Amino acid sequence: MDHTSDKGLIDWTRLRRIFGALCLIFFATTFSAGAAEPTVSLRDMQTLLRDSDFDALEQRFADLEQAYSDGEVSDLIIHRGYTSFAVANPAFEALLDAWINAKPESHRPFIAHGLFHSNLGWLDRGGRFFNETSDQRIELMRKNFAIAEASLERALQLKPDTGVAYASLINMNMAAGDRETINRLFRKGVDADPNSFTVRRAIWNAMLPWWGGYRQDPRVFGIDEPLPDTAALGYPIEIPEAMLRFGQFINNSPNSSPHLAPLRGFTDYAVAIILRRDGRELEAANFFKRAMTHGEYWFFHSNEGQNLSRMKRYNDAIASYTRSLEIWPDNTHVLERRAQAYRSLKAYDKALTDADQALALNPRDPDLLLLKANTLWGDGKFKAAVRVLDDAMLYGSLDDDIWDARGRLYLYRLKNFKRAAADFKRATELEPTNHNYWYSYASALFRAIDCETVPAYKTYLEVCKKHGNDCFDEGVKYAREVTQHLVDSGKC
């Protein structure tokens, strides 16, 4: 069997959508309590920045801050505004610098600048766990995080009670699992901004298991009352004490603020996504529903949709994503997920509409561009898909899956074997233990009549022996036969 057959582009949700989207997910949550509240449009905020209308930007944020101070809304509406600038748009850096220069005594441009560079840092970091991430990526991440940290610390000097700054700093420290700094920032943030949803949301996110949350010290919440009976709550997995203490901490928050209500669903939500991770989607569905009884929260609906997608219930998933978008219409993270669901149904026009809407706000995000390329591939628009992947290289040049995706298009559809080989070679350099990349690289070289085929197939076989428990027997056999033939025939 020849495993160079057309398999389409990669169709898996990479870990970087947990990592790289944190600025979006983490800061820009919104809560609908049924009452009228100020709104903010990411598109409008970006337009003001492009127009260098810094006075209008300052006034927009001042109005949102006043509404929060008056208790009309949670601080998430402010954070939602700042995520307008946490995007992969190279034009924004100079504009944000100009805003700082125009308003050097305002905390607002420093927060926007911090979130911009924090987002770039997450893109630099990529989608693998820290111990699997290259030194090059970690160094690039640290450079952008250092810029972001300096801007956010300056914002706190100018306005010490700014929850979004503390939340962003916690977010960045999760990248290296710095639990001590996370706890210190959390306590400082809560003390400085007692009503902040964002600071609480930050420590919530840091307690999830993939951030080392099981090591969270429960004492940070300052709760000394008896723990709830988890068996009576019906949890099918063990719940760390810190998660239970967080729930008690939220219940003891000032005035039991209704704006904090969704956070009371954290434990149910955490149980749901852990069950989903473990392949127990049916059980997870019940806990997503339980989490949503505490408040209408876009993130709960979005993750419910992701759970339904994993169950291949794509129409139901689309309904959940649509509800999430009703709460926050220009959420690029949810638009991406809904586009993936439409693509799974081969509703390519709808998938492209969502992808383009997200890209209008976040134009060079490599994962959004990969999604659009996937969709164009499915719709038979192969050259257009390659052009999209060319754009993805601006911030995705260290992403092996983007090189692999473009290589597959060149190899299987456009029959440009030399370009395919070049792309697969780069993918193997970025991820040298991926046997699929080595197989594709060797196959492209073979079709290009290049004798580098022999060492490429030999490396594939070595990688399969060391790391490739899922290597196809037919693929291994084919690689050996081709290699032997080329050597025995004297062609190579």
Describe the structure.
The protein has a domain at 19-216: Serine Threonine Protein Phosphatase 5, Tetratricopeptide repeat, CATH 1.25.40. The chain contains 26 helices and 2 strands. The chain has a two-stranded antiparallel sheet. Helix 14 runs antiparallel to helix 15 (281-292) and helix 18 (332-344) packs antiparallel against helix 19. The chain is an all-alpha fold. Residues 1-36 have low confidence and may be disordered. The chain is globular, with a radius of gyration of 24 Å. Helix content is 66%, strand content 1%.
Write the layout of secondary structure elements.
Blueprint: H1 16-19, H2 22-27, E1 31-32, H3 42-50, H4 54-69, H5 76-82, H6 92-102, H7 108-125, H8 135-158, H9 163-174, H10 179-192, H11 197-206, H12 230-233, H13 241-251, H14 266-277, H15 281-292, E2 296-297, H16 298-310, H17 314-327, H18 332-344, H19 348-361, H20 366-378, H21 382-396, H22 400-413, H23 417-430, H24 435-447, H25 453-467, H26 473-488
Antiparallel strand pairs: 1-2
Helix pairs in contact: 6-7, 7-8, 7-9, 8-9, 9-10, 9-11, 10-11, 14-15, 15-16, 16-17, 16-18, 17-18, 18-19, 18-20, 19-20, 20-21, 21-22, 22-23, 23-24, 24-25, 25-26
Question: What is shown here, in short?
Answer:
This protein has 492 residues and is mainly α. It has helices spanning 16-19, 22-27, 42-50, 54-69, 76-82, 92-102, 108-125, 135-158, 163-174, 179-192, 197-206, 230-233, 241-251, 266-277, 281-292, 298-310, 314-327, 332-344, 348-361, 366-378, 382-396, 400-413, 417-430, 435-447, 453-467, 473-488, and strands at 31-32, 296-297.
